[in-house]
## 1
Amino acid sequence: MEYDVVIVGGGPAGSVTARFAAEAGANVLILERRAEVGVPVLCGEGISQRVDKWDMLEGKRWIASKMDGAKIYSPDGTLVTLSKEMAGNETGYVVYRDIFDQELARRAVKAGAKILMRAEATDLLRNGEKITGLKVRQLNEEFNIEADVVVGADGVESKIGQWAGINTILKPGDLETCVQYTLTNVDHESDYCEFFLGKKIAPGGYVWIFPKGKDTFNVGIGILASLSEPGMPLKLLNKFIAGHSDLKKGEPVRLLAGAVPVANPIETVRDNLLLVGDAARHADPITGGGLTTALEGGKIAGVTIGKAVEKNTFDKDTLSIYETGWKETFGKKLHRDYVLKNILLDFDDKTLNMLADSLKDYKFEEFSILSLIKALVFKHPTLLMKLKPLLKLSEKSR
Amino acid sequence: MGKLNIKVDERECLACGGCISICPQAALLMYGGRAFVRQNKCICCGICIKTCPIGAICEVD
């Protein structure tokens, strides 16, 4: 078998890469290890409504509910409300990830991409040093697929990058380990994404409640792996639900686990190879959200590959248009949020409570650093010392 | 006492991939929709045990 591009993984990043490469005229194959695209779901299922402007998804079937913003609860329960414009990537829609992924795959196929199901990459194919495709196992058959470009869209546990000599191994401080229930028959009024912070609630992470349609909520937890113990996410999530007057009356219809890279972005391009989505560590280190970056990055990757096919050159220089592109589009923000993550990890519960108390009456529509400082000086001047690294960061990123 | 091995309980594993992404030896693989430890590569550091969100990885004799 011979293709211009072979993409490992039929998740959002893989399918969007496939679509834009195919639309540019490339001959594209997607390998999907699972028996159904998008299943099992491994995700909190939140995405920004910015996606509406991107012409990535047709119809509304993939939308479970619309969000009005985010509510963030500090360790002592102080509530800070953010309108959706200020709440970052994680508010907007709650989606059905299985339908969402299959809709993206449909667009890729419509553009001409092929999909091989239950097919797993077992190694890179090389001619000397040069990457020339993949060794593949499908059910009991083993065979080679030749391609000018190999794309690793193989998620957080990516092997493609490692095989190409890119260090993709995550440090325990750069991974959120997660579980989530979908709870139904829950009598809880909320059109907001809710987030709960605190060392006793979710060390180095948070608990989330996302409304998912009638009486149904995604309730999940992420804990920083370096602060976790065996099974801690599930134990703490069960404890949170048992202590929540509305949630404890619900029953689960789904339990899923997840692992989210909260890392600094890595190198994503080699001769004849690139990485997209979670495999490229393209998830926001603060929120853990990775859908928008998977879609944006996938598009840049697909367009880049299209140009490479046209020029018939697939070296690192040519494919680096992709890396330059994602760095400009969201790379700076991911790096800034990585630095910010490590600053926030140093905050104890008391500091988070003071911060929330300063911000609870704050009008986020008129957000600026100056007005933020005013709010803090007024309520908790001692906070300013702790926030110094934060303010430095915001100056640098301007 | 024999050497301790790290094993993933395949009845419990929910295939999140966290252990695979974090293993400093790249000793874990996804196989048949479940994480799997390659004993010849594993150095029994236990990072995967701590990372598993549902406690499905443990040391066995």
Note: DSSP finds nine helices and 18 strands in chain A.
## 2
Amino acid sequence: MDAAVNLRPLRIALIGVPNCGKTALFNRLTGSRQKVANYPGVTVERREGERAAADGRTQQVLDLPGTYSLKPTTLDEAITRDVLLGRVAGAPAPELVVCVVDAVHLPIGLRLALEVKSLGLPMVLALNRMDVAKRRNVKIDVARLSAELGVPVLPTIAVRRGGADALIEALEPVHWLQHRSIAAPAWSEPSADDAEQRQRDLRGVLEAVGYRAPAENQWFERLDAVLLNPFSGLLILIAVLFVMFQAVFSWAVAPMDLIKEGMAVFGAWTAAHLPEGQVASLLVNGVIGGAGAVLVFLPQIVILFLFILALEDSGYLPRAAYLLDRLMGGVGLSGRAFIPLLSSFACAIPGIMAARTIPSWRDRLTTIMIAPLMTCSARLPVYTLLIGALIPAKSIGVFNLQGVVMFVLYVAGIVAAVAVAYVLKHFSGARSYSPLMLELPDYQWPHLGNLLLGLWERVKIFLSRVGGIILALMIVLWFLSSYPAPPPDATGPAIQYSFAGSLGQLLEYVFAPIGFNWQISIALVPGLAAREVAVSALGTVYSMSAAGNDVSGQLSPVIASTWSLATACSLLAWYVFAPQCLSTLAVVKRETNSWRYPIIMAAYLFALAYVASFITYRAVAAWA
Amino acid sequence: MKSPGSSNAVPLVLAELRRGEAGVVDGLAPIGLGTTTEERDSMLARLRDLGFIPGARCEVIARMWFGGDPIAVRVGGSTFALRRVEAAAVHITRALPLAAGATA
């Protein structure tokens, strides 16, 4: 065998049905040496990592998307099959396949293993969750299984430290050198007879190794009886969502304030240490302001994803999708859309990215299109400013008027989202059926190590991709707002004379019918970077000094005395719909691989915003 | 022509089982799923892959409103959520609920 071939890292791929513990095993093999990218041309996650064999040589480990069969029903599954067959550009066929099978649910995993084995690739079987199998009285003759399959079978307990040692030993390069070949495996679609033969083979193997279905777990049965019951199940789901919301919004307040303080201090320090001028302005307002706009939402993202990952690991999420499937299906959404939409209440960007888990393209697109209508936390500074300035703090019965208005804004977003989903469902072409057929996995305690790794991954993605876009946009908009500089005898705020100012003054004609004055019109231009930027942009337009971090407090009395209630309500309505967040549009472009959808999204959202603002402005002006 | 005493019943499908009831799978039949033959075949193949094969025991552990849309059914040691139309493609013979499972 060619010496050079032996020096290349061994390419290992993990394959298995969903919920078999494959990702936990992947984490145990690669630790934090993993990266997530995309397969070329598609938004399917490519999760790759590295590990070192005992002799120090590197091995590449690829965690393939979970699949029930090599005959795919979703894009994810098609990628898994294509990678195994070496058909994916840039992802050569693996040299060793580790088929991960859940010992407790042996039949379904073994069926896939038999399919994979027929490809002829070198293979080992990792028989996972042996500890749980033992507790559920599932006995498997491991030696016999190995003999029947003709491949090494290694028992593993992926969630336990040292639980993958047998597998790690089996991955030692010395076992596989002579098997390295360059011939691609072949696969053809199985006929009905092939499928039946495979079922017979499967039954034979299961008999031979002595597999019996697991003893029922009383706790699981009781949990399911409550959590899957339509009434108690939905009530508990609502309670869980409520707790999540409370956690995301109230627990995050302290760390968010800390970050805001920190950025303000850093900005002030920078301004103090640099000569006054454009560079200082760029750094303080553009870069630090931009980074601050991203970082401030980090606590919310972390808390939100901690909850979501824990719920996912525990096995609860598919049950929530089960409860919601019909309700969401009625408005043209997949039951699996509820996590992306839920995430969008913190920030639509991770929400839109989470829509990748929706197998049907049309359902996924619908979810992406309505995600920005979920009231994201970036809107809150705008809402808080306007409600605080212009809505009187009266009480109506037991309710605080300001709180009621806030609640109405949230509900308006949800109602709009449902309406848009309904319209999309009924007015777009041929509809193919996308199946549910969702596995409800065993319950388990979330594993902290996996949670933290998953969280770290999400945070990295948010910071690098979103941060990159927002930072770039903030700098561009800073430029547009600062140049050309005002002439020496200028009387108004500097921004009026810049490109942004000129644009805003043009926009004033467009916005006059909905009650926006020129200050708002100008502020909406830099306000395109991110929703919360509107507050500091208004501050700039009203020539507030940016020294304090309480622009809102300084703005409030100015707005209260110069704006009409109708204008404020109109701007609130605008913010329910308008895509004042170019980063969201940029992510939509990435996730849909095309310019068409972000353009459609921007168009329909601006249109809705204009109409809503118009109606609100006229109605409030007439009534107030 | 039916001889006296022979059954002319409509085959029982999984979608009609109530919570706690069990059956043994006889086979699959396509029922208005999907818009193309390819889609229908693909879905039936997937049902088979999940374990709904002749001879497999299945038990309904939960049903949602609207006539069981979806239902949660246990088969081959795993549990799946199926919509009504999907469960209607699985033909079964009624069986008694057992305490312990059988070989998959």
Note: The longest strand of chain A covers residues 45-52.
## 3
Amino acid sequence: MASLPIYEAPGAFPVKPGTGVRPRLTIAVSNPAPISTGRHKVPNLRHRALVVAKWRSLWVLLGFALLGICALVRLSYLGFAGATGQSADITSLLLPARGMIVDRNGTPLARDFRVYSLWFNPKAMTDGSPLISSPREVAEKLHAIFPDLNVAELTRKLSSGEPGYLRKSILPEQANRVHALGEPALEFPQEVTRFYPQGTTAAHVLGFVDAYGNGKVGMEEVFDQRLKSADGRSQTTALSIDVRVQGALEDELGRGMQLSQAKGAAGVVLDVETGEILALASLPSFDPNKIDRASTPNIFNRVTNQVYELGSTFKPFTVASALDAGTITNLGRRWPAGPLHVAGFTIHDSHNFGASLNVPETLIHSSNVVTAQIADELGGARLKRTMELLGMNERPHVELPARGFPIWPSGVWPRLRTMTVAYGHGIAVTPLHLASGYAALVNGGIWRPATLIKRSPDQIPQGRRVFTAATSARIRQLLRMIVSFGTGRKADAPGFRVGGKTGSAEKPGAGGYQRHSLIATFAAAFPMDHPRYVVIAMMDEPQGTEATSFQRTAAWNAAPVVSRVVPRIGPLLGIMPDETRDIDISDLRPLVPAGADKE
Amino acid sequence: MNLTRDRVHSIGWMTVLLVCGALSLALMLRVNAVKSEVASSEKHIVYLKRDIDFLQTEFQTRSNQQQLKALNDLEFGYEAPRAEQYIEGERQLAALGKPAAPGAPAPIRYASADEIGDTPGEGGGNGGGNGGGQLLAMVSPVTGAAAAKTKSTSEAVREDEAEGKALAREAKDLGKRLARIETAGDAQ
């Protein structure tokens, strides 16, 4: 039979379920006679295709619905939970990595600072050379931005292929210029560094932070744990320092040091009632922002770490001790002032003050001979006891880690030792010991430990009584007389009622004391009618220059520093100059001859 | 559909529930949007605070004790004030403004060269009224035109007289006169 209906069976269609293509029917009918089997298959086919299509759209719908539910769940979650977890992270961004240190008035002394640094990352470019231009060209371009960088050194670093710092701390505009070079390998990450806005001011008090983030030397070391803790980071740490006073002290000490060509200088300003240190300066100083090899020796703190024989500044201690002990009952009593021979040793004065001196004259002229005799009458045990009460036998009381141990003669003091200690020889203490001692001398006789932490009125320590209030009042008069009529005249600041004592001690060296290397100290307190602050100025090996009238002693170099510091700091500390006021010295005035101040 | 009373009720409740649900969903979305806005503002604030910190540090560095000292040495040369430059208290300050006692020597005055024809003291007790005519006018160096025309002396005197007359008129109304406040502008 030639005319068979030709059709292609459904199974022969290359239809995959799911493609959605309708099966192509090619029905070639040569004979119009219907064939029943074929007619049934076509609707079946269509039905199945429809079912497949429905299923597919259902799946798609389900997928969308699932997505929608997910989105809704997420939305409602966010709606309930919100962005609470995020805000805590944000505020922590403001928290410094290390707490801020401020002065007593809240001026920041040390704070965190975010700086850009220039980092070479050779892996920034995945293929080929890490740099687009040659290392030499890049180095020259960088040199144009940072003139202090060395081109050869830079080229070596850039061509080595090692990641590393090209420069630490760059300015934002410099970062922009580096960015404009178009080198992906030059990155400038922001890094947190410790920054000291006041520069070298109060450097010895603050110290610095090393590359590992640990505080060194000053209060940075003392407070290291606290500054890193969560508590210390969120609040500031207040020091007792007043940065204006510190600035004035450093400025004037630096000036005095330059004028007298001294090797170094040191100074302290101490609150006599609370023991707070308002300024502590050791020159030459260092910059805590930039610690390098050249500045390392200057990190040494002369005020708390170095002990000196402070010479005649000890005489008021001796006189006060004798007044307390009752061995001086009459300030007008006269002692012979000729050279004193004791145990094969002769005690001299700087020059001849006449046959005899009374107590005010002894202090005014700074006589070693008479002070030695006063100490001799007082006795070694009592003088030693006074010195112990003043803390001269232990490291200075302050928080700083670097504290020098005094050269303290232990045991029973023989006669000669007692005499030399009376005028500040044979005992070596730090300038801070002296400041604390003078505070006790003028504040009514109470010794209190010094501190660099701001004290609130309820935190002021009780202290211990060293001198009676009457003795302290007497010493105030005597100290004022030294400045009015005696060796301390150059320390006077009109209206500020300064009182104090000079001290010029020869430095011990190989083969005895060296005549030409002195430690010149001036220990002062003001205002003498109601002492509030002690000011110590010390010069290490001052030279006789034109500015100091070719003199090396404290009256010519350390005393003028005090006279310039006091008017600068007095008004800042609430002490206004007043020339109509002064401590009453009328009862002692007759003991000093009328011409004493015209010397 | 047979809408019984109960069915209507339940349909109503369902609708209310749906509407409430939709509203609360919308509110939730709104709250969420505001929250994220707040978070982004907070972030912005934090970044601004950081910028402030940066600038503060810069100011502190530029105004540190050494910089101030260098600036003073170079520009101002200020020194610590002396004792006589201080005033003890309000009493001493007030004493400076006390009128001279009868028979007291005339105080030494500086810089009081008045122009001829200028009549000081006629400004109805207003001492500042004479200064206007003595000031030089600002003249532009390019055009030569005066920047601000200053009043001539005669004008100022005339104004003062007019003001005096006005005050005399107002004298009857004491409250008005007392309530009058002298401003800096009136003094010129």
Note: Chain B touches chain A through 30 residues (CB under 8 Å).
